[in-house]
Amino acid sequence: MKKLILIAVMGLGLVSCTTTQKATKDMTDLPKNWKHTTNIYEVNLRQYTKEGTFKAFEKEMPRLKSMGVKTLWFMPLTPIAQLNKKGSLGSQYAASDYTSVSPEFGTLEDFRHLVNEAHRLGFKIILDWVANHTGWDHIWTKTHPEFYLKDPDGSFHRASGMDDIIELDYKNREMRLAMIDAMKYWVKETNIDGFRCDLASWVEVDFWEQARPEVEKLKPLFWLGEYDELENPDYGKVFDASYSWKWMHKSADYYKNNEPLHELTDLLKQYSAIGDNSMRAWFTTNHDENSWNGTEYEKYGVITKPMAVFSATWNGVPLLYSGQELPNMKRLEFFEKDPIEWNGTYQMAGFYKTLLDLKSSNPALRGGDPNVATYLLNTTASDKILAYIRKNGKNEVLVVLNMSKEPVDFTIEDSQVTGSFKNVFDKTGRNFDEGKAFSFKPGDYAVFEK
């Protein structure tokens, strides 16, 4: 009898332990927790493989996992409108139905399988959501034409500068509810973990305030908005992270036009002043930039890698685009089939793995965490060198970037940097109490952790 009682007690202990472990895992799995350490990799499914399908991409996921990728963002998966479409394939941002899958990519069941496999590998999945507009022959143009903005002559209103799309009317209450139902559809049917909201600030902020809590009745989600919070501060109340468009444009102008570095640091101070209730996404390229404005190498030249280091280590969320691990040196077509030219050698994968793993593991690089302090550092070459240190308790990460087109000999002159660190790329140690001098070639960078 005593043996039976002991076995029963041990059994209860096992159940209790398992339940506690599950509860702990569920807590860490919430976006409010994992968003601070995640990174986002944008998947251009059309151009990722020759097949351009879910099944073909699924084979690439173990490689991306080993590179340190945490969140996969899929460009729109909905069917593409045929009326007034551009090119032979059309834009993925001109939907003809919000609750179907484009046959170009496969089936709904194929996507479900991909999401399940991605979750098994530890990824989060976010889906591109185009709420501002649809294509000209979207199903709603026939079933609910009142959902759309109209020109004085009664025709559908074209979106500014884009002839293949027409804009929705957010004063229409029923349209809003239909849009929310469509977003819920993807959460219920495929178990995605969030949305990247296209042109988020072109849609009234009160729609997002209405939509988020309603969609999240299904599960907590991560919300990335395509807007700059410096220009649209009200949207920061709704979204977990936003784009850093002003930084992207200013940094490109800085390099091409030889503008002063202090204009970049002044802008960083403006972003920091927003606070940690929301985060910024930092990037050197994405689908729009690559196709319309050129590759990251066209834009940043010799400082491309320092800019990538910045994007992975400054306060916020690193955002990568398909093919950066190659690196991809060509502009990808937007409306035609134009696959990335994979060659079996991922020259930049180790570089990104080092940065992404550091971002995920070092508490000093947590994004949007008020416990982390970020300090811009003084150097003897403040017109050429961007240096900063991020601290969270005993954890520190020091980043030093040559933002110029020439060699620079310089010294860090700042009391924030003390003690011994390890270079995360070459694994060498350095005691900064013994000196803070550097000699950088063009394109050089260094990242140290304590």
UniProtKB/TrEMBL annotation:
Q: Which SMART domains match?
A: Aamy (SM00642)
Gene3D superfamilies from the UniProt entry: Glycosidases (3.20.20.80), Golgi alpha-mannosidase II (2.60.40.1180)
Tree of life domain:
Bacteria
List the keywords (alphabetical).
Answer: Signal
Q: Which residues form the Glycosyl hydrolase family 13 catalytic domain?
A: 51-359
In the record, biological process GO terms are: carbohydrate metabolic process
UniProt key word Signal = yes
Among InterPro entries, the record links this protein to: GH (IPR017853), GH13_cat_dom (IPR006047), Glyco_hydro_b (IPR013780), Malt_amylase-like_C (IPR032091)
Q: Which residues form the signal peptide?
A: 1-22
| TM segment ranges | none
The UniProt entry's coiled-coil ranges are none
PANTHER family the UniProt entry points to? ALPHA-1,4-GLUCAN:MALTOSE-1-PHOSPHATE MALTOSYLTRANSFERASE (PTHR47786), GLYCOSYL HYDROLASE FAMILY 13 CATALYTIC DOMAIN-CONTAINING PROTEIN (PTHR47786:SF2)
This chain belongs to the protein called: Alpha-amylase
Species, as recorded: Chryseobacterium hagamense
